[in-house]
Automatic annotation (TrEMBL):
PANTHER family assigned: F-BOX AND WD40 DOMAIN PROTEIN, OS01G0946100 PROTEIN
Organism lineage: Eukaryota, Viridiplantae, Streptophyta, Embryophyta, Tracheophyta
Keyword Repeat: yes
UniProt xrefs under InterPro entries: JINGUBANG-like, WD40/YVTN_repeat-like_dom_sf, WD40_PAC1, WD40_repeat_dom_sf, WD40_rpt
Keyword Transcription regulation: no
Organism superkingdom: Eukaryota
Pfam family, one: WD40
Listed name of the protein: Uncharacterized protein
UniProt repeat feature WD, residue ranges: 180-219, 314-349
Annotated segments matching region Disordered: 1-42
Positions with biased composition (Low complexity): 9-39
Keywords: Repeat, WD repeat
Length: 375
């Protein structure tokens, strides 16, 4: 298996549905202890199928609109925040690009550790870092510094409320203990759903934070290896791990999250990303099998049986592609696509929706070797 802590180096696309039933002993969910989570069968309508490849020449016409340079390290993640595009890098910097002219507006986040993931919620930006912390930035035009650091997770208040009790500490490594609200390794991914932020880490845990007061509500011992990807859909949060599994987590009312199902991939493949179809019926995982990255973005059409058919390839980057983001707004019969690469650049593309044979096409997520756009 490839190095679970460096999936970007050797990722390749794994775009096959993954399926197995969960049992009550398959995972644990706990605020402070090891008690097993209650669980029931989780059966989205998934089936295994083959990926179809068809000749891609002449099927569509994309346009390269801009190449945005300025990062001191490889681009690790992207997010859309109103009129801005945010791109973060392994070089610890976050650049804000203003639309529609795509000029560099400002930089922030220097010195806070390599940025692994970022999400936006209202007027706040949450950034996950290699130093195992989440930083909260407020967007305000009334301030000279429009992106201002307002807090770090776990918050000081959260620390003070828990550090005195020994029961709030968990064993992270031999002779090392931490509060259960702390991640013990790099935070690799974030997702937002229903007033909560979920963080996945190389420490194998999934943590749940309440946006309103930034309090850590749960710490879930989710996987047997590093967590590399998260996505939320239809009340379910999916975590993808280097252990080759995607796990589905859900909650009812005020209860804690519990394991709802396990989706298993091919043997010896580290899962690095996960996406879910709009109706919640199909789950796709992107993984590493030791192959090389090819610097291209592949466009895939979802077929009626849930299979994927590749209908196009976008070329232009000089290094492997690490992340994709797309505007939800239609522009001239197509959509704006943004790609970040290990070549330290952010590229902007226009992709026609009808290039994939559907008027309702929209991109969802990416992996590194064959970056996936589900339509």
């Amino acid at each position: 298996m490839v190095n679970s802590k460096d999936p970007s180096a050797t990722e390749t696309a794994l775009s096959t549905p993954l399926l197995s039933a969960a049992t009550s002993s398959s995972g644990t969910s706990s605020d402070t202890d090891d008690s097993p989570a209650t669980s029931h069968r989780f059966e989205p309508q998934l089936q295994k199928y083959q990926i179809s490849n068809v000749p891609v020449s002449g099927l569509y016409s994309y346009r390269s609109l801009a190449v945005l340079s300025g990062h001191i390290g490889s681009v690790s993640c992207l997010a859309i925040c109103g009129e801005f595009i945010l791109s973060a890098s392994q070089g610890k910097d976050i650049i804000v690009w203003q639309q529609p002219d795509l000029r560099q507006f400002t930089k922030f986040g220097h010195g806070d550790g390599s940025v692994k993931a970022l999400v936006t919620v209202g007027n706040k930006v949450f950034t996950a870092h290699q130093d195992s912390r989440i930083r909260v930035w407020k967007v305000s035009r009334s301030s000279e510094n429009i992106f201002r650091l307002v807090d770090t997770l776990p918050t000081t208040k959260d620390y003070l409320g828990k550090f005195m009790k020994q029961s709030n500490y968990v064993q992270t490594r031999r002779h090392h203990k931490r509060l259960w609200i702390e991640h013990a390794d790099s935070i690799s991914c974030l997702t937002v759903y229903n007033g909560l932020i979920y963080s996945g880490s190389w420490d194998k845990t999934l943590k749940v934070w309440r946006i309103s007061d930034l309090k850590c509500l749960e710490s879930i011992k989710a996987h047997d290896d590093a967590i590399n990807g998260l996505v939320a859909s239809k009340g379910i949060v999916y975590s993808a791990s280097a252990d080759g599994k995607i796990k589905a987590w859900g909650k009812e009312g005020k209860s804690s999250h519990s394991l709802k199902g396990i989706l298993e991939g091919h043997k010896d493949i580290s899962l690095n990303s996960v996406i879910v179809s709009e109706d919640g019926r199909l789950v796709y995982g992107g993984g590493s099998d030791g192959g090389s990255a090819d610097k291209n973005i592949s466009i895939w059409k979802r077929e009626t049986n849930g299979g994927l058919c590749r209908v196009g390839v976008i070329r232009g980057h000089e290094g492997p592609i690490k992340c994709l983001q797309a505007s939800p707004n239609s522009v001239g019969g197509g959509f704006m696509l943004y790609s970040g690469s290990l070549d330290k650049s952010l590229r902007v593309w226009w992709v026609p929706k009808n290039s994939t044979g559907t008027e309702d096409a929209s991109p969802v997520q990416s992996t590194v070797k064959d970056s996936i756009i589900l339509c």
